[in-house]
Design a protein that fits this description.
globular; GMP Synthetase, Chain A, domain 3; 40% helix; three-stranded mixed beta sheet; 29% strand; alpha/beta; 2 domains
Length: 140
């Protein structure tokens, strides 16, 4: 895969893996949040009973924790990132040798997907680029 992680991300992954026993694939650090991409077999371990592992990591880091289940399928990975949104369809197309994801969602969910100042859509684009070489995301 060839992900480039900084020192802080590596420390967070190491801490969370030792705390949970789950295989962590990626970590994105935001101002108020840590986003972990977890191997699909280890999501339950990462969360812990009644969310205990998430709570512990949140206390240790002082940040909210988000867990995303990894999938080799880009369509399923998108669905995993947008669990709280009703997705009508996901299409992956290629234009000028660049992969583009088109996500059809309900109009009322667009704000949630984009996020304040585009924060959520930037995270989605970054993760799709890092894991599936998808260069752009379009919301319809």
């Amino acid at each position: 895969m060839g992900l480039k992680l900084g020192t802080e991300e590596i420390k967070c992954i190491g801490l969370f893996e030792s705390l949970t026993g789950a295989k962590i694939i990626d970590c994105i650090m935001e101002d108020d949040k840590l986003v972990f991409v977890v191997d699909e077999k280890d999501v339950g371990l990462a969360i812990g009973k009644r969310g205990t592992n998430i709570k512990k990591m949140s206390e240790l880091s002082g940040k909210k924790i988000e867990i995303i289940e990894y999938s080799d399928s880009p369509e399923q990975f998108i669905r995993n990132m947008l669990r709280s949104v009703k997705i009508r369809s996901v299409q992956i197309t290629e234009k000028n040798n660049k992969k583009i994801a088109t996500i059809d969602i309900a109009k009322e969910d667009k704000g949630l997907v984009i996020g304040k100042s585009g924060k959520n859509i930037k995270r989605i684009k970054s993760l799709l680029n890092r894991h599936h070489n998808i260069m752009d995301v379009q919301i319809t």
